[in-house]
């Protein structure tokens, strides 16, 4: 009887992990303003561009991402390097005074985006990105599943 429960829980867990890690087959970029951005929008698994200027990125983490991650790491972008996002979310924050060119890739389809100063792009799991400028702030957010499967090695 106990082994039946164990296998039931194991099958449910594996199904849940596959559902979370499943990538969308179509390509869309969502553009929104801060007042329209909510946590449910993050679950769409599409890149999100927040067009309002964000002057304190921590406010964004404390509101929209409040219950979406357990670990957060910070890196600085390297120019012209394609990076695959193996985290639940990758938040690219343009702190430069000039706009930058951000190229997103999904299923090898390149999409070029101009990211204005102090705006944010949220990139979901398995999307790739390339920044044309050095020194852009990149925050990597992981939940428990992404951290255990991919984030620990990133």
Describe it.
- With 154 residues, this protein is α+β, with helices and mostly antiparallel strands.
- It is built from 4 helices and 10 strands; from the N terminus they run αβαβαββββββββα.
- The model has no long low-confidence stretch (mean pLDDT 88).
- It has one domain (24-153): Jelly Rolls (Sandwich).
- The strands form 2 sheets. The chain has a 6-stranded mixed sheet.
- The protein starts with a helix and ends in a 5-residue tail after the last helix.
- It is 24% helix and 31% strand.
- The radius of gyration is 17 Å and the shape is elongated.
Contiguous uncertain segments of 5+ residues? none
CATH topology: Jelly Rolls
Number of helices: 4
Q: What is the element string, with H for helices and E for strands? A: HEHEHEEEEEEEEH
State the separation between the terminal residues, measured CA to CA.
Answer: 40 Å
CATH architecture: Sandwich
| Oligomeric status | single chain
The spatial strand order of the largest sheet comes to: 1-2-8-5-10-3
Total beta strands: 10
Number of domains: 1
Shape: elongated
- Gyration radius (Cα, Å) is 17 Å
Identify the CATH class.
Mainly Beta
Q: Would you tell me the overall average pLDDT?
A: 88
Structural class: alpha+beta
Relative strand content: 25-35%
| Largest sheet properties | 6 strands, mixed
CATH superfamily: Jelly Rolls
């Amino acid at each position: 009887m106990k082994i039946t429960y164990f296998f039931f829980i194991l099958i449910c867990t594996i199904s849940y992990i596959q559902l979370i890690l499943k990538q969308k087959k179509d390509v869309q970029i969502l553009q929104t303003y801060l007042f329209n951005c909510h946590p449910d929008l993050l679950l769409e698994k599409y890149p999100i561009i927040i067009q309002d200027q964000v002057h304190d990125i921590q406010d964004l983490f404390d509101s929209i991402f409040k219950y979406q991650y357990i670990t957060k790491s910070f890196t600085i972008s390297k120019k012209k390097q394609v990076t695959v996002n193996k985290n639940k979310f990758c938040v690219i924050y343009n702190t430069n005074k000039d706009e930058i060119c951000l190229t997103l890739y999904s299923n090898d389809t390149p999409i070029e985006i101009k990211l204005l100063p102090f705006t944010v792009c949220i990139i979901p799991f398995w999307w790739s990105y390339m920044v044309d400028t050095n020194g852009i702030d990149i925050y990597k957010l992981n939940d428990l599943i992404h951290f255990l499967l991919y984030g620990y090695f990133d």
